Amino acid sequence: MLYELLLASTVLCLTYNIYKYMVKKTIKLPGPRGLPFIGNIHSFIQDGGPVWQVQKWANKYGDTFKINILGEEIVILSDYDSIYEALVERSNDFAGRPFEKSYVTKKLFSHGIFIQDFTQRFEANKKLGSRGLKQHGDGIGRIVNLSNENISQTVKEFKEENGQPFQPHDKLQNLFCRIIICVLLGENTPYKEDDGEFARKWLEDIEVNLRGPFFYLIQMFPWTRYFGNPVYSTMNEMMKCRNKTFTEWIERFKHYKQESGERTLIKELLAAKEDGKMTDDGIFGIMIETFIAGIFTTHTTTSGFLLAMMNFPDIQSKLHEEIDHVIGKDQLPELSDREKMPYMEATILETLRYMSMITPIFHKTTCDTNIAGCDLPKNTQVWMNLYGMHHDKRYFKHNPDSFVPSRFLDSDGHLVPHEERKAVLAFGAGRRVCLGEVLAKTRMFLLFTQLLQNFYFEQADPENPVLFDMRKFIAGPDTLVATKFKIVAKPR
Ligand code: HEM
């Protein structure tokens, strides 16, 4: 039934877009021809997912090209110069978000930060979110303490596996969930086991159920929800679960009043509501974004790091050596250790580069502007192909498709100057830079260090090793997510 609907909607679309298609060819860039009226949309379900199709086109059409989706021209940038120009040099011109026609994304993440267009509401929400995460000054000390405490708990859980193969994903997901709940609600509000269940359910839906043809169908043709599109009922369940959980969290937060005066994200949001500057929808929107982004991204990056450790024992032993030398085995890591551990910094940087798990990033022009010498009208969608840029030989000379942390080190083992690693923009840059960059980098450093202080990581089945191969990751519309695997964590 739904496939017939897909056909019917395509036909309707043909009629609706005919005028647009005939007249709207305003952007003078090369690009794939596509099918009449639907453009290149069908290509996104081929070749393992959108990210790989974008790489193929970039190889063929170059750094700057356009595609066509249902009559709309979309520009894709793949090289550092134009991505930097758009994100940083003319940040305001490219700071819009193109989600007004994306039904699922809009429903699930409305009123927050990520999907908001470049409006005053966006700026106010981002400022509030940033204040609430407290990633600077005293706030960072608090993040270090609560991260270290929770990571030690995960280390204990890994030890309980007694060096036998196990799947680390749920333990890691619980870890990030515990940390982000502390960040949201403050340390005085107790964590409950159900909180982890909520995260698991949402992330599973995002990673597994919000994919494939039904997802794209309802995303573009919301009326298919009246004809049994299964994604619609998944979304409704997710929203119900979100509203119930967040209402309970806010009540719990109010119950365990934060005597310390510590300003947590919830406290900031509730205070803004009292001042008439925030709605309930806004509170839920910002909470769900920080919650999901706070778990999903770092969780996937950690899976990548563990895959790297299992596959490259020489890299792992260099990290062991560095940790033993700088911190030893019994002391908890501190942020000040980071600058003394260039090999760890290089390995984190390489993990972010090699994986490029958020790609492409979706932007939109906020005025008539231009990029790489090409004029773009206001409201043009511009996608930044971070994976392409991070795997470009021009910026990463030693085989960009290999995992090589030492590419970021000089001959004395120091981190190369910023100029030589500037093309790693895993958190974006400029107006729409990631809100949780400092939190994410801090947690990754503390977690990876504590894990390697305590374990040797090995393949669960050396005869059938699990490779660190991005092609094996699940490709969503703008993400690459690791599938589950088993690992051995041998105590050191
Ligand atoms: C390894 C971890 C992470 C990576 C690689 C990552 C990467 C990114 C990227 C590439 C963007 C889009 C930038 C753009 O569109 O120009 C982004 C945006 C965002 N990230 Fe992250 N992120 C991570 C962790 C986090 C964490 C821990 C949080 C929150 C606690 C977070 C919250 C956000 C938010 C709210 C935005 C939207 C910002 C905006 O639209 O202005 N992220 N992130």
UniProtKB/TrEMBL annotation:
Q: Which Gene3D superfamilies match?
A: Cytochrome P450
What is the recorded membrane topology of this protein? Peripheral membrane protein
Zinc listed as a keyword: no
Instruction: Cite a single GO MF annotation.
Output: heme binding
Is Manganese among the key words of this record? no
For biological process, the GO terms are: hormone biosynthetic process; progesterone metabolic process
What InterPro entries does the entry give? Cyt_P450, Cyt_P450_CS, Cyt_P450_E_grp-I, Cyt_P450_sf
Subcellular location per UniProt equals: Endoplasmic reticulum membrane; Microsome membrane
The record's family statement is: Belongs to the cytochrome P450 family.
Q: What is this protein called?
A: Cytochrome P450
Q: In which organism is this protein found?
A: Owenia fusiformis
